[in-house]
Amino acid sequence: HSFNYYEKYIDTYISPSKFLASMLSKRIHKTIEVIPNFTEVIDVKRSQSKEQEYYLYYGRVSEEKGVIEIIDIFKKTSLNLIIIGKGSIEKEVNERIQDADNIRFLGPKYGKELFEYVKNSKYVVQSSKWYENCPMTIIESFALGVPVIGSNHSGFKDLIQDKETGFLLNFTDKNEAIKELKKIDTIDVSVLQKKVSTFYTQNLAKERHLEKIINLYNSLLNK
């Protein structure tokens, strides 16, 4: 910054989210194009059985991800929660769920096995307390047609259209979050699943990402 390199030698910045772009714009006075990340997931089939209907958290099992908060919240409901991942608070998670019949911690899962859990969940829950840029777990969930209940801040607000492709909650207000989850559980999730698939195809698919990137590069080369 002090040598002004960023202003001299960069024509355009690419940001995966409006959230990051707004933060960059405070320091950088160049064009910032918002082009979300994309991912490729292993396509799996959705089970037709509703016997084990569940909500899913997957990712890093650490304090800043709000895992303890969602455990405390789900313990006050009859909703089933599965936690998948690994991290620094695994021991605390296991201790916390000992008296909770509706919560299971499965440790890390990968590839097809992980995506089967994602595809067959009712909602993916992402409760991060820290800011996140463009959460890949949301993009993966959307790619599999699964709506997401996420924190009401940062990059979550870029990807989740509240009440359309998921829900934005304040997980730090546990009593309010419990009330909202119970309401959400009564909604026909199939309506949101269709909206998620449409949103993903139009905004987050690999083809859409590459189209935006190539168009941007061409516009810069033709200057």
Topology:
Layout: H1 5-9, E1 12-15, H2 18-24, E2 31-34, E3 55-58, H3 67-75, E4 81-84, H4 90-96, E5 103-107, H5 111-119, E6 123-126, H6 136-143, E7 148-151, H7 154-159, E8 166-169, H8 174-184, H9 189-203, H10 206-221
Helix pairs in contact: 3-8
Order of helices and strands: HEHEEHEHEHEHEHEHHH
Measured distance between first and last alpha carbons: 25 Å
Overall mean pLDDT stands at: 95
The major sheet is characterized as: 6 strands, parallel
Amount of beta strand: 5-15%
- How much is the radius of gyration in Å? 19 Å
SS elements, strand count: 8
Portion of residues in helices?
A: 40-55%
- Treating each run of at least 4 consecutive H or I residues as one helix, how many helices? 10
Main sheet: which strands, in order across? 5-4-3-6-7-8
What's the shape?
A: globular
From the helix content, strand content and strand pairing, which structural class follows? alpha/beta
Low-confidence stretches: none
Structure report:
The chain is of the alpha/beta class and 223 residues long. It contains ten helices and eight strands. The chain has helices at 5-9, 18-24, 67-75, 90-96, 111-119, 136-143, 154-159, 174-184, 189-203, 206-221; strands at residues 12-15, 31-34, 55-58, 81-84, 103-107, 123-126, 148-151, 166-169. Strand 7 (148-151), helix 7 (154-159) and strand 8 form a beta-alpha-beta unit. Helix 3 (67-75) packs across helix 8. The longest helix is centred in the last third of the chain and has 16 residues, at 206-221. The radius of gyration is 19 Å and the shape is globular. The chain starts with a helix and ends with a helix.
